[in-house]
Amino acid sequence: MSISPLRSSSCSRWRGRQSPLLILLLQPEHPSPPFSQRLAPSSARHFSRTLPYSSRTGAAPISVPTEVHLRLLPPKPRKVITRIQPNQVLEVEGPLGKTSLELPAYMDFAQDQNTGKALLKIPDRTVRKHREMWGTTRAYLQNHILGVSEGHSSIIRMVGVGFRATVEDIPPTGSATLPPPEYPGQQLVSLKCGFTHPVELAVPWGMKCSTPQPTRILLEGIEKTVVNQFAADIRMWRKPEPYKGKGIFVNGETIKLKAKRIK
Question: pTM value?
Answer without folding.
Answer: 0.73
